[in-house]
Amino acid sequence: MTTTAAVVWGRTEQQDFRARVRGCLLGGAVGDALGAGAAGRPLAELRRVHGPEGLTELAVAYGRRGAVTAATQMSLFTVDGLIRAQVRRDTGAWHPPTDIHRAHLRWAATQRDWGPDERRRDLGWLAREEWLYARRDPARSCLTGLGDDILGTLDRPKNPAATDSGALVRSAPFGLLVGWEPQLVCQLAVECAAQTHGDPVAYLSAGALAVVVHGLARGDSVDGAVRTAVEQLAPRPGGTRVVEALEAALAAVRQGMPDAERVTALGAGEDRAEGQLAAAVYCALVGEDVRHGLRLAVNHDGPSAATGAVTGALLGALHGETALPPAWVAELEGRATVLELADDFAMEMTQGAALHGPGETTSGWLDRYPRG
């Protein structure tokens, strides 16, 4: 896999990139947490309990306000894998899908084990974060796809019939590879999604999300980023349904005031990847601000945490961290971990050459992100 030439980063560009990385990861987590409070509860119940607008603030889930689901857990391990792929590039053994797979296997271990195995020096720092060992309703396809060490590929994918959003919700971080061209971002996200989700609708939805985030992180509009994603998917086998879902989201903007019924009509009511993607894109397009967009995203009968997580990642990449509702960020579970990982990612992508090199073997960075 070949990327573009190295990006030359000025101070302003670095600051903007860091803000968008933080925004994407924090936004996804905040949307996930907001949606977790609505998960499993129909819209009618949300309106009866919380008022005619439904859920408008963080609610208790998993015993606390601000708790996140497996969507955030897996997204963090996606970022960990991307950093470690860059670090391993020094060795000449560079195959990002393998590094992402290893990262997701580390996540899968958190779903089986009581806590981190301190004897393993290859874990890196993220897999030692004990709060990540809580099981938060992971998609069954993610657990089965990562139930062994075999790497699923596009030729031989895991779970060939899986169409749910389990791969979609962990794929926004691929779009933060702003030095790559859109087609390479899409291809990497697609290959990594096929490690657990083998239906083209699922893995191409993941690729489309990555391309949209990529456009936003580069400063494009939501509309422009979605059209780039459509261009990437149109020629791919099986891409028609995802393209139609994205085009429906763009068309829905002109069909009247946004409401829960319109979000549901785009596919939010079912756990299908293309519907969740379309609903999230629509909420990002019509949201008056991040708060409004996320509230719109989670009030429906479907998997609210998934819609919220994808919408939050889009809005965070678009506006940066300072646009996120501060009260929600303050209560977010694992906020310090999310911020630390976001800053590490931004530093690796902008200043990696100063952190490690082919002859470097004792760097503290390599303790955090081992090459093994």
Give the secondary structure arrangement, pairings included.
Layout: H1 11-36, H2 43-50, E1 60-61, E2 64-65, H3 70-88, H4 96-110, H5 140-145, H6 182-193, H7 200-217, H8 222-233, H9 240-252, H10 260-268, H11 273-286, H12 290-298, H13 304-319, H14 326-330, H15 335-355, H16 364-368
Antiparallel strand pairs: 1-2
Helix pairs in contact: 1-3, 1-13, 1-15, 3-4, 3-15, 6-7, 7-8, 7-13, 8-9, 9-11, 10-11, 11-12, 11-13, 12-13
Key features of this structure:
1% strand; ADP-ribosylglycohydrolase fold; single chain; 16 helices; 372 residues; mainly alpha
Strand order of the main beta sheet, please? 1-2
How many domain regions? 1
Globular, elongated, flat, extended or rod-shaped: what is the shape? globular
Query: What is the radius of gyration computed over CA atoms, rounded to a whole number of angstroms?
Result: 19 Å
CATH architecture: Orthogonal Bundle
Number of strands: 2
Structural summary, described in words:
The protein is mainly α and 372 residues long. The chain has one domain (11-368): ADP-ribosylation/Crystallin J1 (ADP-ribosylglycohydrolase fold). The chain contains 16 helices and two strands. Helix 11 packs across helix 13 (304-319).
